[in-house]
Write a structure and sequence with these properties.
253 residues; single chain; globular
Length: 253
């Protein structure tokens, strides 16, 4: 293997623990969404306190978005323009998927459509993060500012007829959950992504794992979670239609 092939192999290396953590998060999300659908279809009434657990999933996802941005930035540190272009392209792709979800939910759930949901927000975070990746672990400062600002906006500033810019920024209705089934404004969630970039630059500095960890790829129980993590976007896109479709058929029969 020549030097160029070794370098390319290093760039393609994956840190399996990130895939596993993402896999745990996607599985937990599916379980919570299944419970939500059972409640929505009137099959199994759900204690609404359980919905508060749903906060765990997006926190993990947005942290991982930031961590992976930092890891990719370190891998392509000699080709920053290439990395930034890939990040912007992926951000636009995910943002377009979010817009598709907006159109679909406007048709099938007109009372609570997704106007600025998790896909919209992740797409914007991927694009915006390209402006701050060079600050590496000092992004902790920007993260704190964005999170505090976002929480303050959501708490002190509300409007009953927000436009898309206000929704994206975090200015929304006083009871936003009654108007949309999925809402993740850039403020404060971009701050969680920036926190992930900070962690990524600390834990995976110079594209090397900076903490001891056994080779998890040799443990069979980790493989399903790793697979889920590697295909999390596709699973996110199809899991709700599958769950809702199955429950609809059950009720119909």
């Amino acid at each position: 293997m020549n030097e160029g092939q070794q370098e390319e192999k290093g760039k393609q290396q994956r840190f399996i623990e990130l895939d596993i953590l993402r896999g745990f998060a996607i599985l937990f999300m599916i379980i919570l969404h299944l419970l939500w659908d059972l409640d929505y279809f009137g099959i199994l009434p759900l204690n609404t306190n359980l919905y508060s657990l749903n906060l765990i999933v997006p926190v993990i996802f947005f942290l991982l978005v930031g961590i992976c941005q930092a890891v990719n930035n370190n891998r392509y540190q000699n080709q920053p323009k290439k990395m930034y272009l890939r990040s912007i392209q992926r951000g636009l792709w995910i943002l377009n998927l979010g817009i598709l979800f907006t159109l679909l939910t406007a048709i099938f759930l007109p009372g609570r459509p997704i106007l600025f949901g998790v896909l919209h927000c992740i797409g914007c975070c991927l694009i915006l993060s390209t402006l701050l990746l060079r600050f590496k672990s000092t992004n902790i400062i920007f993260a704190a500012l964005v999170i505090v600002t976002g929480l303050a906006l959501g708490f002190f500033f509300t409007t009953e007829n927000p436009n898309m810019v206000e929704l994206a920024a975090g200015i929304h209705e006083s009871n936003v959950a009654a108007h949309t089934i999925d809402y993740f404004p850039i403020l404060p969630w971009f701050g969680v992504c920036l926190l992930g970039i900070t962690l990524g630059n600390i834990l995976y500095k110079d594209n090397k794992r900076r903490f001891p960890l056994p080779d998890l790829s040799h443990y069979k129980p980790t493989k399903p979670f790793s697979w889920l993590g590697q295909h999390s976007l596709a699973i996110y896109l199809v899991h709700q239609p599958i769950i809702a479709g199955c429950l609809t058929l059950i009720l119909w029969f």
